[in-house]
Amino acid sequence: MFGNCFSALIKKLKTTDLRNTGKFMVAEPELVKNIMIKDFHLFVNHNTLGSIDEIADHSLLSAEDEEWKRLRSIVKLIYYTNSLQIVSPTFSTGKIRKMYALVEHCVKGVDKMLEKAANGEQEIDVRSLMGNYTMDGIASCAFATKTDTHNDPNNPFIINARKLFSQNMWRSFGYLTMKPVMKFFNISILEPTTTEFFKRAITEIVSQRKKDKSGGHHDFLQLMINAQKNVDNLEDIDDKLMAAEAHHGMDDNRKLLTNKSKLEVSDLDILANSLLFFLAGFETTGHLLSHMSYLLAINPECQKKLMEEVVANTDANGNLDYDTIIRLPYLDACVSESLRLHSPAPGTTRVGSEDYKLGDTGITIKKGIEIFIPIHAIHHNPEYYPKPHDFIPDRFLPENRDKLTPYTYLPFGA
């Protein structure tokens, strides 16, 4: 209900002035593009409310200003030293392909649970099922840690991971209302026993990896370790770096990357951003798969169409390889439409580093004012998506994508 009312409001007010509350809402696609892309250098900060936790402070999501630039430079170093491409994701196609066997193993665990439930005519809690699958998948791919969440819920890794997602309410309340008091008494926003567990676990894995010269690991931890090792080897990739910049039209990356004092990767950086990777990957993926399962269940015609596409591309042994999966247009459309209807975050924020003239609106947003971009409302605006509350995957088929208004599809930002 709230989402519907919010959508109706945004339809009438594309740019909402909330400056008396210290906030400003922007939902006009062209203005969203300016803030998130064109003038991004002025909006690198989110409204994180600050932090009182050492680990949280060192993550890319919480860091601000120069510290954010330093961590972002480290991410670029990861791109360069592992794939030598400017805008390649940390898990590039080649790296994901290497992890496919790990993901497939986790999928088979889901298959077994579904088959067991079907044979016994039992109900399945899809949210728990997909959460367990996501936990196993990201533990394998991010930390090379084997878990069997479906059958071994008391695994210490699983117990502590779940604690991260069931944040103690009084800590969250204290963080929002009594931060100075919590800071004075050194009370962390995160559960200390949980962070200590992951700190020990990740530190131990990192220590083992540094001793292991085989180079046979392809997870996120290894990419961070590689970046730590390669700070002193930037000159060896200088020519490739320049060529990549020229190809992608990037003009200031070399200046950032060749400042070694900014690029030193500490063990705390590795710990904080590995933990962030786990948190971001677990909840968002479980959220997507749960909602998509539900949407397909209540739209049997879409479910049938998707099943036909999958069956038609399955080999004689009943398997789908990675290259086939990423080229299934209706599967991609179902995922995209699920993310449109149920984005992992209802909105995102930016805080300007200086006074900012908002397009041709005549409005100047003062430095430090929080800008809120209402993703849920934009995704449900009938101006951009006719019948916005209906599940219509065809919107995202290749032949229809060019009909979408740019910067109105923002499930993970822009």
TrEMBL record:
May be involved in the metabolism of insect hormones and in the breakdown of synthetic insecticides. This is Cytochrome P450. It holds the Pfam family p450. One of its GO terms (cellular component) is endoplasmic reticulum membrane. GO terms for molecular function: heme binding; iron ion binding; oxidoreductase activity, acting on paired donors, with incorporation or reduction of molecular oxygen; steroid hydroxylase activity. The keyword DNA-binding does not apply. It comes from Medioppia subpectinata. It comes from the Eukaryota. Transmembrane segments: none annotated. Keywords: Heme, Iron, Metal-binding, Monooxygenase, Oxidoreductase. Belongs to the cytochrome P450 family.
